[in-house]
Every structure is written in structure tokens, then in C-alpha cells.
């Protein structure tokens, strides 16, 4: 039933699970949609849409799918059935069997649906025999979304429930925009590996252990301690600074602040690089040549259980990335960028790249260096969704 | 269908729109918790109160704090008190049940009559919190290992969950809920809401107040926009003070009832200073 609609929603990017779909079918059997399109809209919205960010998408898809349906057409369709009893029987068979209804009731049901279609969608939803609810009271109060603002579901008056396109009142809630500090912090909180097995001197009272041991001692108090449960996750962040990253400075500083505020990691290391990885990394965002560490040193000394996040636009000149004879390099013994990146990805199993750009879906549109780096690191956009996907990736390495 | 079907139609002092009412009824009938989101002050908590009132049921409120754990809602085993009792040799130490205290969820499950359970601001708690409640809300039962008992809801409560969208809720949890997003009311609905709370207020005052309210909400760049509950407080303050409501929009008397943040008050005051 309505399987096409389910597939349509999923194709449109709304993640509808089978469970949710089954509850809709259940709802329809219970008559909760009240045999009207508006009822069906409310029912499916209540059960399928779980985030305000998706409301817009859902409304859009619902409109796309049902735009051709209006009361006139529905009425005509149902009326046709009156003249074709065999076909009607076929359609209603399972419905009638399920409810163990007599065949003559079928005609009544059809009549009822015609009336429902005629009366429009918003009012008198209690057309089905069970009379689940009666909305006429509040409709009379005029407490609906308010006439005149064109929202899609003021159903009265036989007006199509499907709204005028472009009138998308839930648009503000979409998440594909870039982010605020709090949301960053929430995303970083996904990075957690709680454990008591930490190398720490801290201890806290183990109440259960104490009581257990006290009981074993026959009531003589025997206090037990245990290390606290803390996040043992270690994180290293490498940020591209200066040059082509200038436009994204604010975004990066937000990221930096949230990283510091989140403060839940057992260790956090932040380094900076300029455009492309070189033999040296900077410890200060101003890329001061005096404050550097050797990249080789980091690879040797920072253990492989660190999770690594690169932040940068991944736009580099190809000669920086692959040509180790470039005169622009500080010394000739230095490796080229791509080798450094590969070294990192080999050592740190959990590493991702965050880029701040709005990029096309199609990789072919991106710059050459972007494509190269994408082969080494999984890349995510620095937006709420992207960051979160990135964090999941870091945690599970899926 | 022999089961009772509740018809929730709003109460005298809670104006509800069609969509929300239909969604609420769907949730009740399908035995799913209803997750309500929306701007602070749009009446998420009041919804539960009004449902309890309309259906004449007891309302159990479980207010979530940042430290709340799922276990707190089920039951608590007062192990320390039991220890004390055993040291002092008090009677009844053998009876573990004496030291098991039901939490709010447990209370709702063991209640003899069906009740309305409000889990308020679920997003305040830890990220894992909703997941810890999955089984309990799905099956309407939980297990107490200490007494080897399973508490099963005698009458599954109507569950309403509110969230201020501070944190994303886990997908597995969302899948089990029905969802409704309360939009900010428009002028007309707001008019009805005011009338529901102050039936004898003069039309002219309502008009003035609404005009000033939406002006403040839309004209200024505010950190925290005033919402329904602040508007109602403001009206009540204006009524009590007996101040003239002429030129409400220019004077904005007692504006501190609408704006709760110092910065916002500054913003509004500054713009007025500029005008005068």
C-alpha cells in the first residue's frame, strides 16, 4: 500500500525506516487518517518526520507526489466505483475482510467517501465509522493555522491541501547551512570513549564496591576506591592557516574555540600548516617560523591511537603536492605533500579531512588537489551534517 | 474496536490548532510517545497539562536536568540506607522492596489509572539518555534485578516528551515517537490565546498589545525573542499596574516582562533613545 510513496520519499532523501512505514499502515487501518488527504498528511508527518529540519523536505515531497490530487478528481474517481461494483469489490476486498463487514456496507462506505471528498479536507474528519476525532470544534474557534497565510493544510472549503509551492514555512530549520559554536561542541561530544582504565591518580569512592566489601567483612567498613570514568579519546587537529583559507578564518576560529571548550578529550593537540603539509608544522595559527615542530617528530612521537582531523580547503598547487624538487620548499631533502599525507593516513587509522567549501556533489568539479586528497582521506564538509558524519566516521571508521 | 478512544480537543485555556490535535490523537491511539518541539514558551509543557485536564487524568511530570539518568526515572535502590539499617540492626532489612523507590516513569507504570506522563526537556540530559529509555518506553516495562521483578505498565500512560532542540536526539529513539513541531503562533491565534487566558479583556487592548508585541519581536534583533508565555505575563502586569495602554507601541511600559536578557533591553532602549 502506497509503497511508491515510501520509495519516493526515500529517493527524495527522507530516511524513512520500514518500522515507521508499518506504523503508518497500522494507522491507516485504524482509520486515523480519517479518509482524507489532510488526515493522511498529518498522519504521515507525525510518524515519518522526526526533526524540524526535515519538515520542509517532507512538505516539498508530499506536494510533489500529491500535487495532482484534488477533491474534484477524488470525487470523480470514487463516483466511478459506484457504477463498477466488481471493481469496487476488488479494491475493497481486503478492507472488508479485515473488518468482517457485510458486502452491502461497502456501498455506504463509498458514499461516505464521496461526501468526505466533497466537504473538503480540513473539516469533518470524523467521517469514518469509528469517529476517532472531531475537529470541528477547534475549526469553529478559528484556531487553525490562520487563513490567509497560505499554509498548506488549511483544508476547509474544498481547497486543495497541497500548498502553493515556494511557500515553504519550515525552510529556516534546514541544517545544511554552516554552524554555530554550540552545535560544533555538540558534534565534538560524539567523540567519546568512556573508560575507567586511565593512567591517572584520581580516584573516587566506589559505593557499590564499598558496600559489597563491607558486607563481606561482616559490617566493618571497608572503603574501596576506583578511577573515575573519563573520556580517553585523544585528538590531533591539523589546521590549514593563511592564504586560501582567509575567507574561512572565522569558521576555523569557531572550530578552534569549540574544540577548546568541549574540553572532554584526554588529550588535544592542535597544529597548523600552510596550504600543504611540509617538513615542519606550526604550533601557532600565525604560522610563525620560530614556533614549529618537525612533522617527522610528530609522526614518531604521537601514538597511533590519536584520532586525526585535517581542516583545510585542500586547494593546493599540484607542484606543492607531488613535486619534491620544487624550489619553493625549504630544503631539498624534504618530502612532497602527498607523501606526508599518506604517512599520516598510514599511521593514524582514524583520520578525516574537513573542508569549508560548498562543493558540487560531483568530484569532477573539484580542483585536482582536492581529488587527490579525497583519495587519501575521507572528506566532509564543515557543516552540522558534515561534521557529524565526520565524527561518526572517526569513531567507527566505517 | 472496543478500546477507549480519547478525544482530545483542547481545553478552555489552551488553544490548540487542528494539526496538533490530530497528531496528538494519532499518538494516543497508536500508543506512541509524542515528541513536541518548538521555540521556548510556545506552550510545549502546557500541552501536557491541558491534555491531562481534558482527559481528566493525573499528570506526572518528569523534569529532566543535565544530571538526570534514565535509571532515576525507573526506580532507585537506596543501598546506603539499607547499609545503615543493617549496621543499626533495624527491622526490615531483609525486605529489599522497602529500599526500592519508584521514579516518575515507574510511578506512571504502576499507577492504577492511566495517566499522562510528561518527560520535560529531554534534551537537557546526556546524549545517551533517550537511548537508555528505548526499551522501557517501547515495551512499557522494566526489570528490577534487586528484587527480580518486572514492572509492567498496568495502564500504559500517554507519554509526551518535550525538547528545546538543544541536542539532537538519537534516530532509534525518534523512530519510536510521533513528532510535532509547534510553530510560533500568528496574530490571529495569539489573539485567541490571549482571550482564552483573559476572557474579559477589552478588544482594543488586545489589539494594542499584539501590535506592540509583534513589533518588538520582528523589528529588533533580539537574542531571545519574547514568546507566548512572556506576552501573557506582560498583559497580566499591565492589567495589574493600571497603566494606560494608549501608545503602547511607543512607550512599551514594563518591557522587562517581555525581554529577559539585559542585552535585549539595551537594544530596545537604545533605539528609542535614538528616536527621541
TrEMBL record, chain A:
Identification of the protein by name: VWA containing CoxE family protein
Alphabetical list of PANTHER family matching this protein: BLL5662 PROTEIN-RELATED, BLL6692 PROTEIN
Taxonomic path: Bacteria, Bacillati, Bacillota, Clostridia, Peptostreptococcales
Domain of life: Bacteria
TrEMBL record, chain B:
Transmembrane feature ranges: none
GO molecular function: ATP binding; ATP hydrolysis activity
Domain AAA+ ATPase: from-to ranges: 30-188
Protein name listed in UniProt: MoxR family ATPase
SUPFAM superfamilies assigned: P-loop containing nucleoside triphosphate hydrolases
Organism the protein comes from: Lentihominibacter hominis
Amino acid at each position: 500500500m502506497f509503497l511508491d510513496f515510501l520509495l519516493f520519499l526515500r529517493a527524495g532523501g527522507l530516511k524513512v525506516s520500514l518500522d515507521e512505514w508499518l506504523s503508518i499502515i497500522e494507522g491507516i487501518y485504524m482509520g486515523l487518517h480519517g479518509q482524507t488527504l489532510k488526515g493522511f498528511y498529518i498522519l504521515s508527518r507525525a510518524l515519518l518526520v522526526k526533526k524540524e529540519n526535515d519538515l520542509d523536505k517532507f512538505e516539498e515531497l508530499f506536494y510533489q507526489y500529491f500535487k495532482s490530487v484534488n477533491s474534484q478528481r477524488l470525487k470523480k474517481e470514487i463516483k466511478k466505483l459506484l457504477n463498477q461494483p466488481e471493481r469496487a469489490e476488488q479494491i475493497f476486498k481486503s478492507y472488508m475482510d479485515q473488518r468482517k463487514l457485510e458486502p452491502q456496507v461497502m456501498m455506504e462506505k463509498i458514499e461516505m467517501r464521496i461526501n468526505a471528498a466533497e466537504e473538503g479536507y480540513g473539516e469533518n474528519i470524523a467521517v469514518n465509522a469509528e469517529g476517532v476525532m472531531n475537529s470541528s470544534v477547534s475549526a469553529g474557534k478559528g484556531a487553525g493555522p490562520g487563513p490567509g497565510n497560505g499554509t498548506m493544510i488549511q483544508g476547509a472549503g474544498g481547497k486543495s491541501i497541497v500548498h502553493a509551492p515556494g511557500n515553504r514555512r519550515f525552510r529556516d530549520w534546514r541544517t545544511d547551512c554552516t554552524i554555530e559554536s554550540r552545535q560544533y561542541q555538540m558534534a565534538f561530544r560524539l567523540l567519546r570513549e568512556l573508560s575507567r582504565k586511565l593512567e591517572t591518580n584520581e580516584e573516587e569512592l566506589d559505593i557499590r564496591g564499598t558496600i559489597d566489601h563491607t558486607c563481606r567483612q561482616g559490617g566493618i567498613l571497608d572503603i574501596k576506591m576506583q578511577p573515575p570514568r573519563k573520556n580517553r579519546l585523544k585528538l590531533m587537529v591539523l589546521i590549514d592557516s593563511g592564504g586560501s583559507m582567509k575567507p574561512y578564518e572565522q569558521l576555523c576560529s569557531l572550530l578552534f574555540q569549540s574544540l577548546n571548550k568541549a574540553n572532554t578529550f584526554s588529550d588535544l593537540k592542535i597544529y597548523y600548516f600552510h596550504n600543504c603539509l611540509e617538513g615542519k608544522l606550526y604550533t601557532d595559527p600565525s604560522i610563525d617560523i620560530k614556533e614549529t615542530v618537525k612533522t617527522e617528530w610528530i609522526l614518531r612521537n604521537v601514538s597511533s591511537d590519536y584520532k586525526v582531523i585535517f581542516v583545510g580547503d585542500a586547494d593546493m598547487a599540484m607542484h606543492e603536492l607531488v613535486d619534491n624538487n620544487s624550489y619553493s620548499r625549504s630544503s631539498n631533502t624534504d618530502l612532497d605533500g602527498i607523501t606526508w599525507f599518506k604517512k599520516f593516513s598510514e599511521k593514524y587509522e582514524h583520520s578525516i579531512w574537513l573542508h569549508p567549501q560548498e562543493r558540487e556533489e560531483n568530484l569532477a568539479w573539484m580542483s585536482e588537489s582536492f581529488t587527490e586528497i579525497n583519495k587519501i582521506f575521507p572528506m566532509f564538509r564543515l557543516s552540522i551534517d558534515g561534521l557529524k558524519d565526520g565524527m561518526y566516521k572517526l569513531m567507527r571508521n566505517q | 474496536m472496543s478500546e477507549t478512544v480519547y478525544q482530545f480537543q483542547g481545553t478552555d485555556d489552551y488553544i490548540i490548532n487542528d494539526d496538533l490535535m490530530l497528531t496528538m490523537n494519532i499518538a494516543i491511539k497508536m500508543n506512541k510517545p509524542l515528541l513536541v518541539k518548538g521555540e521556548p514558551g510556545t506552550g510545549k509543557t502546557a500541552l501536557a497539562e491541558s491534555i491531562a485536564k481534558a482527559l481528566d487524568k493525573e499528570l506526572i511530570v518528569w523534569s529532566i536536568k543535565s544530571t538526570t539518568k534514565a535509571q532515576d526515572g525507573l526506580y532507585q535502590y537506596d543501598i546506603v540506607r539499607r547499609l545503615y539499617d543493617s549496621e543499626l540492626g533495624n527491622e526490615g532489612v531483609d525486605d529489599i522492596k522497602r529500599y526500592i523507590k519508584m521514579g516518575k516513569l515507574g510511578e506512571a507504570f504502576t499507577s492504577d489509572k492511566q495517566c499522562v506522563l510528561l518527560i520535560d526537556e529531554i534534551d537537557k540530559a546526556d546524549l545517551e539518555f533517550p537511548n537508555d529509555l528505548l526499551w522501557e518506553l517501547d515495551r512499557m516495562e522494566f526489570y528490577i534485578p534487586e528484587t527480580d521483578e518486572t514492572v509492567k505498565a498496568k495502564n500504559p500512560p500517554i507519554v509526551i516528551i518535550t525538547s528545546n532542540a538543544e541536542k539532537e536526539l538519537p534516530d532509534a529513539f525518534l523512530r519510536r515517537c510521533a513528532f510535532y513541531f509547534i510553530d510560533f503562533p500568528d496574530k490571529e491565534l495569539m489573539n485567541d490565546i490571549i482571550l482564552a487566558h483573559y476572557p474579559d479583556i477589552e478588544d482594543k487592548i488586545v489589539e494594542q498589545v499584539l501590535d506592540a508585541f509583534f513589533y518588538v519581536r520582528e523589528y529588533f534583533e533580539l537574542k531571545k525573542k519574547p514568546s507566548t508565555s512572556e506576552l501573557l505575563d506582560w498583559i497580566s502586569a499591565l492589567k495589574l499596574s493600571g497603566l494606560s495602554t494608549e501608545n503602547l507601541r511607543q512607550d512599551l511600559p514594563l518591557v522587562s516582562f517581555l525581554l529577559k536578557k539585559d542585552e535585549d533591553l539595551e537594544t530596545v532602549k537604545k533605539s528609542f533613545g535614538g528616536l527621541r
